TrEMBL record:
Belongs to the universal ribosomal protein uS11 family. Transmembrane segments: none annotated. SUPFAM superfamilies: Translational machinery components. GO terms for molecular function: rRNA binding; structural constituent of ribosome. This is Small ribosomal subunit protein uS11c. The keyword RNA-binding applies. GO terms for biological process: translation. Keywords: Plastid, Ribonucleoprotein, Ribosomal protein, RNA-binding, rRNA-binding. It comes from the Eukaryota. One of its GO terms (cellular component) is ribosome.
Length: 138
């Protein structure tokens, strides 16, 4: 049986690093996923690394109020606030899903100081889709 080697703790020095670093992001991509129950807004840089995210559930809405446009608007404002603080000025918007919050989240982004370069709807559409279940016999 091998011996366990004790790890030297970095907290011994007394310095604790913050997890979020303050990098400057001039341009990014805003993903809006509007499902029927919730709206999730994710802000990434050009490479696709997540800068910030927020959802209607994380904004404090529970139950059926998560699906409302106001909850989506609040989630979009929360997600964009940290991106603007890191210097984001231009962004592309990719919207996915059939939810009620897609327009409200887009309106909240338009009202912010971010200039939108591109707005795309990337909702997946089935081309003939899955095979339907067999006919029910009574």
């Amino acid at each position: 049986m091998s011996k366990l080697i004790s790890r030297i703790s970095s907290r011994r020095t007394g310095r604790i690093r913050l997890r979020k670093n303050t990098r400057r992001i001039p341009q990014g991509i805003i993903h809006i996923q509007a499902s029927l129950q919730n709206t999730i807004v994710t802000v990434t840089d050009i490479q696709g690394r997540v800068v910030s995210w927020a959802s209607a559930g994380s904004a404090g809405f529970k139950g059926t109020t998560r699906r409302t446009p106001f909850a989506a608007q609040t989630a979009a404002i929360n997600a964009i606030r940290t991106a603007v603080n890191q210097g984001m000025r231009k962004a592309d918007v990719l919207i996915r899903g059939p939810g009620l919050g897609r327009d409200a989240a887009l309106r909240a982004i338009r009202r912010s100081s971010i200039r939108l370069e591109l707005i795309l709807d990337i909702t997946p559409i089935p081309h003939n889709g899955c095979r339907p279940p067999k006919k029910r016999r009574v």
